[in-house]
């Protein structure tokens, strides 16, 4: 390299031809020296970063830096192209697999739910033929729960498999549970149209005051018993949450509503009877109202519960159809709930699931069996006392308020879920089942809107007391409202929700108890 520098100097100063020869020889010697002592080619160098810096420009010419990446980048292009093709083909297989899984899931739901509905229909028919007045669905719930307990103690895997098989049906019922309470609320105008205003006001006072009194009795009893037995809290079994409603579901039911509504206007008996023709759009209006109400903000739900939105949607649709068809709203509401199996309406379809709802309680109770066993003392004691208090206090206050005996009997099971309340009033002669269902739903609405604030005012901090007090006074609707914000209280709500109806049904099925209630009513 020294010769190279000398030759440059001579050439720059205008040296002779010998000087230029010396420069050429020196450059050749330098080049030969580089090729001899470098064990690798500069073309094979792969720097970690190709960001140009002064240091890298000095050591590596521009050609070297640009040549190497071209060779290294161009080679992986084919594998990348192949990978893209394989991912595209894999996506098609994944979509096919997803469709297959959806189909299998739909069949699983249909089979499991169909078995529960079939069992309910079979038990109901058997009890009617045998002349047994005890609620058939309640008997079925005891049977399922007992079978699960026996299997769990002998063959646990069989009990787990049975629970897994009926899980889709249970989740379906849980997802649509409030919807099964709606029909009686939709036809509320027909149920109360013959009730005098003074009697309606008395029923309203009994409803609100009775809810608050029952909540206090259940909550304070649970706290007192828990302190007496000194039972420590344990973790509850996790409960699955139903899937939210999708946009596809909303648009599907909207299309059903519009098409069937217009069709019924032009062809009033296209499906054989007016009730069957009105069934599709009235059912769609009910379902859409529930979907819309469920999607409202939480602060709006406090004063406008989804079940109210659901009932209003069905009533407004019935009003619109009555207006355009010139028939009025009352005949359309009559089509909504016909109570005739040969000519069912939308409300009859929904209320047909009430027996299945009761049967599904057995699965939720079995899932929380450890919790029931550990806290059995406070749960059973508070539920029994609150149930007895609710029945007899309603009868007593109704008589003191001089409410008609038939109306008082109809509202006796005001704090018991609709499915069992209707079974209870069927044991009494002259009861108005439509009024019973309406009062039960209204009680649930009062509890759903005000239960959490009331529990805070009463300083009920224990989840056992909060859960039992809510379910014992406002059944399913109150349970749904509280558990949405306090999931730790959900197990106690679910247990008290089921046991409250069970004990109420057992008590009212005893002739001596029924006679004592009728004696108080007068």
TrEMBL record:
Keywords: Membrane, Transmembrane, Transmembrane helix. The chain crosses the membrane at residues 131-151, 171-192, 204-225, 245-267, 279-297, 345-367, 379-397, 409-428, 434-451, 489-513. GO terms for cellular component: membrane. The keyword Cell cycle does not apply. Residues 71-94 are annotated as: Disordered. It is a multi-pass membrane protein. It is found in: Membrane. It comes from the Eukaryota. InterPro entries: CidB/LrgB. This is Plastidal glycolate/glycerate translocator 1, chloroplastic. It comes from Psophocarpus tetragonolobus.
């Amino acid at each position: 390299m020294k010769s190279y520098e000398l030759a440059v100097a001579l050439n720059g100063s205008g040296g002779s031809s010998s000087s230029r020869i010396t420069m050429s020889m020196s450059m050749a010697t330098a080049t030969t020296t580089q090729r001899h002592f470098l064990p690798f080619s500069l073309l094979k160098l792969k720097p970690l970063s190709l960001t140009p810096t002064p240091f890298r420009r000095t050591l590596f010419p521009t050609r070297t830096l640009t040549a190497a990446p071209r060779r290294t980048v161009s080679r992986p292009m084919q594998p990348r192209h192949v990978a893209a093709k394989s991912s595209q083909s894999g996506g098609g297989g994944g979509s096919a697999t997803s469709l297959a899984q959806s189909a299998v899931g739909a069949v699983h739901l249909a089979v499991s739910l169909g078995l529960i509905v079939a069992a309910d229909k079979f038990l109901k028919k058997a009890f009617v033929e045998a002349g047994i007045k005890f609620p058939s669905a309640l008997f079925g719930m005891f049977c399922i729960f007992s079978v699960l307990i026996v299997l769990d103690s002998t063959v646990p895997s069989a009990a787990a498999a049975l629970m897994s098989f009926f899980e889709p049906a249970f989740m379906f019922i849980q997802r649509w549970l409030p919807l099964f309470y709606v029909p009686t609320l939709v036809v509320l105008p027909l149920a109360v149209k013959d009730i005098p205003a003074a009697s309606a006001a008395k029923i309203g006072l009994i409803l609100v005051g009775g809810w608050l009194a029952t909540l206090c009795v259940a909550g304070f009893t649970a706290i007192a018993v828990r302190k007496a037995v000194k039972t420590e809290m344990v973790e509850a079994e996790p409960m699955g949450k139903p899937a939210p409603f999708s946009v596809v579901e909303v648009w599907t039911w909207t299309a059903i509503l519009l098409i069937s509504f217009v069709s019924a206007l032009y062809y009033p008996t296209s499906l054989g009877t007016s009730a069957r023709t009105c069934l599709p759009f009235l059912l769609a209006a009910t379902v859409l109202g529930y979907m819309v109400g469920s999607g409202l903000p939480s602060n709006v739900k406090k004063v406008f519960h989804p079940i109210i939105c659901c009932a209003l949607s069905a009533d407004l649709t019935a009003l619109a159809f009555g207006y355009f068809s010139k028939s009025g709203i009352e005949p359309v509401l009559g089509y909504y709930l016909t109570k005739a199996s040969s000519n069912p309406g939308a409300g009859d379809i929904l209320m047909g699931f009430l027996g299945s709802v009761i049967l599904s309680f057995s699965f939720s109770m079995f899932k929380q069996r450890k919790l029931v066993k550990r806290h059995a003392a406070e749960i059973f004691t508070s539920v029994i006392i609150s149930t007895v208090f609710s029945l007899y206090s309603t009868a007593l206050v109704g008589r003191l308020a001089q409410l008609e005996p038939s109306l008082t009997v109809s509202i006796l099971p005001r704090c018991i879920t609709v499915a069992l309340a209707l079974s209870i009033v069927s044991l009494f002669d002259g009861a108005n089942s439509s009024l019973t269902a309406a009062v039960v739903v209204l009680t649930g609405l009062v509890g759903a809107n005000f239960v959490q604030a009331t529990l805070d005012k009463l300083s009920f901090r224990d989840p056992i007391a909060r859960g039992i007090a809510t379910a014992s006074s406002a059944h399913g609707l109150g349970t749904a409202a509280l558990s949405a914000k306090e999931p730790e209280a959900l197990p106690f709500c679910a247990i008290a929700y089921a046991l409250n109806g069970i004990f109420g049904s057992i008590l009212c099925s005893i002739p001596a108890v029924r006679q004592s209630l009728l004696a108080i009513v007068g």
